[in-house]
Design a protein that fits this description.
The chain is mainly beta. The radius of gyration is 17 Å and the shape is globular. The protein has 2 domains: 47 residues, Roll (SH3 type barrels), CATH 2.30.30; 197 residues, Fumarylacetoacetate hydrolase, domain 2, CATH 3.90.850. It starts with a strand and ends with a strand. The strands form 3 sheets. Strands 1, 2, 3, 4, 5, 6, 7, 8, 11, 12, 14 and 17 form a 12-stranded mixed β-sheet that branches. It has a 5-stranded mixed β-sheet with strand order 9-20-19-15-16, with no helix packed on it. It has a 3-stranded antiparallel β-sheet with strand order 13-10-18.
């Protein structure tokens, strides 16, 4: 089931995607369940928004694909390499990524799958982690690569406004063993890798993160990126596609 958060006639709403229509929900399904209103709206008449705005945090995992760890140098991490993005970095499909050109000379894409947490989670064992997953969406862990290298930690490089595009929908039933992540810049494929190449699995990531801090409904866990990271420029169109979810598309401009 695909869940959308959208704007229609200047009103924020939620719906279930049914072919070319949205079955309108009575409220935010993270908190209000899947009660429908009986209304249907054509997808062509709405503006899709980021399918979730984390109330608390965006948890990210670095070097979590074997091929990406190799391209970044060094060995694959024995434990998940975890960091945070602020929720103010989140934007939605077709929103504009803004390169902070007065502070950084290189901004990169990183196509990823994001886990949407559905329940309060603390000290969750890996074997029960699926009980806490609401669904999955597509994400782009935009990074000021030069700042990542010079700062010694990643908060600034990963945390600028617009540096966490997510969307276009939440898929509640993703087959993570079969999902493929593909990133394109102006139609040219730059990344293409399976989730099966992940070093630390989704259940292990939920267990690890929840051992450190409480995960809240709507929190995101960006699960890492495959090999092929690289820069984009003002005027580019960046697309991240995850099979089974859809295509997250954003354009780019300079600040």
């Amino acid at each position: 089931m695909k869940i959308a958060r959208f704007s229609y006639q200047e009103t924020l709403r939620y719906g279930i995607v049914d072919d070319a229509e949205l079955v309108v929900l009575a409220g935010d399904p993270l908190f209000a369940g899947f009660e429908t209103t009986g209304e249907r709206i054509p997808l062509s008449e709405v503006t899709l928004l980021a399918p979730v705005i984390p109330r608390s945090k965006v948890v990210c995992i670095g070097k979590n694909y074997h091929d990406h760890a190799a391209e970044m140098g060094g060995e694959a991490p024995a434990e998940p390499l975890m960091f945070l993005k602020p929720n103010t970095s989140v934007i939605g499909p077709d929103d504009v990524i803004v390169r902070p050109t007065t502070l950084s000379s290189r901004t990169d894409y990183e196509g990823e799958v994001a886990v949407v947490i559905g329940r309060i989670a603390k000290n969750v064992p890996a074997e029960r982690a699926s009980d806490y997953v609401f669904g999955y969406t597509v994400a782009n862990d935009v990074t000021a690569r030069d700042l990542q290298k010079t700062d010694g930690q990643w908060t600034r490089a990963k945390g600028f406004d617009t540096f966490c595009p997510v969307g276009p929908v939440i898929e509640t039933e993703l087959d993570t063993d079969a999902a493929i992540i593909t990133t394109r810049v102006n139609g040219e494929v730059r990344q293409n890798g399976p989730m099966s190449d992940m070093i630390h699995s989704v259940p292990d990531l939920i267990a690890y993160a929840s051992s450190v801090f409480t995960l809240l409904p709507g929190d995101l866990i960006l699960t890492g990126t495959p090999a092929g990271i690289g820069p984009f420029e003002a005027g580019d169109t960046v697309e991240v596609e995850v099979s089974g979810i859809g295509v997250l598309r954003n354009t780019v401009r300079d600040a």
